[in-house]
Amino acid sequence: MLTVVLIIPTGIGAAIGGYAGDAIPVVRALAQVCDRLITHPNVLNGAMLYWPLSNVWYVEGYALDEFALGRWGLLPPRLNRIGLILDAAIEPELQLRHRQAAAACSTTLGLMITEPVVTDEPLGVQLQTAVSGATWGTVANPGSLLRAAEKLIQAAKAEAIAIVTRFPDNPGTEALQHYRRGQGVDPLAGAEAVISHLVVRHFQIPAAHAPALQPLPLDETVHPRALAEEIGYTFLPSVLVGLSRAPRYTQADQSAVWSQGVDAVIVPASALGGRGILAFAHQGVPILTVANNTTTLNVTGAALGIETIPCQSYAEAIGVLSAMKAGVSWQSVTSAT
Predict the structure, then answer these.
(1) Quick one: how far is CA 57 from the chain centroid?
(2) Span 242-257, average pLDDT
(3) CA-based angle 237:45:249, to the nearest 5?
(4) Domain end call among 229, 248, 267
(5) Are 111 and 105 in contact (CB under 8 A)?
(6) Of 211, 233, 248, which marks where a domain is finished?
């Protein structure tokens, strides 16, 4: 069985995977070669759009790092009861849109979703941009988020947590305009990761985030890569679908999938600095780097002293994986000899 981890770090302007769901075609193609493909919400969330695949495992980024470090195992996916958290800062009309989206997913898709819990304080999300251009963020009231999650886990028996927080509206900013034109870095992605990491680290439960924003003015010049985020009032459906069959985490169950079972990791060639990638490399897992998935970073295998399998594209990486699965030397099917 070929088990592969696909990582495209959040908020670093990845040419593929830097937008909502634009890496899904890569996932669909990889899923035809891999028996098990483990990836994270940044790769699979397409706002209103999604493409569930039975052999693709939806694992939040903090949990994926813990998995890579050998601290957590992943239990095979089964239907999860999803607890929904709504930030108290969300205005009534916008909150209703998200309640309706959850009800639609429950009725139309058959998902198990609890009654939403509204946080006891506004969460106070703030957006930040690093010198490199990567985005991140802060939460002013993290305790309120954790209290809401605890209530859902204990009282509603939630097995996964979907979080909707009110993000600042910045329709006129240069960064957002660049993003809508298919350039630059997702201004929300880094803060989203901070929010989901907090819940996963504290409760060891699958979680993912959807930002709440007022709809942007209609603009016929928006780039196709950004359109998944333009076609509805909420980004919640893809999060709920992903969480509905997200693997649960364990620290002891030896029947789970552990990092020792990973056959290869795929990552952009300039983004090897994450702790999960470094952990896999330390274990000797083959690291396939994709050159044409450029990012704002410049953290390469050569700079870190990590031996990699260089691929120009995801198509070439798929060829390398096919060779691995067939027991054929990858050098014999690439230009690298």
Answers:
(1) 11
(2) 96
(3) 95
(4) 248
(5) yes
(6) 248
Taking the C-alpha atoms of residue 131 and residue 46, their distance in angstroms, rounded to an integer, is 27
Beta-carbon contacts of 327 under 8 Å, excluding residues fewer than 6 positions away, are none
pTM for the structure as a whole: 0.93
Q: What angle do CA 17, 102, 222 make, to 5 degrees?
A: 40
Phi and psi torsions of 317, nearest 5°: -60, -40
| pLDDT tens-digit readout, 67-103 | 999 999 999 999 999 999 999 999 999 999 999 999 9
Mean pLDDT over 134-155 rounds to 90
Range 30-66 burial, b when 16+ CB lie within 10 A, else e: bbebbebbbbbbbbbbbbbbbeebeebbbbbbbbbbb
Number of domains in the chain: 2
Q: Is the pLDDT of residue 270 over 50?
A: yes
Domain identity same for 228 and 116:
yes
The parent domain of residue 295 ranges over 3-76+250-333
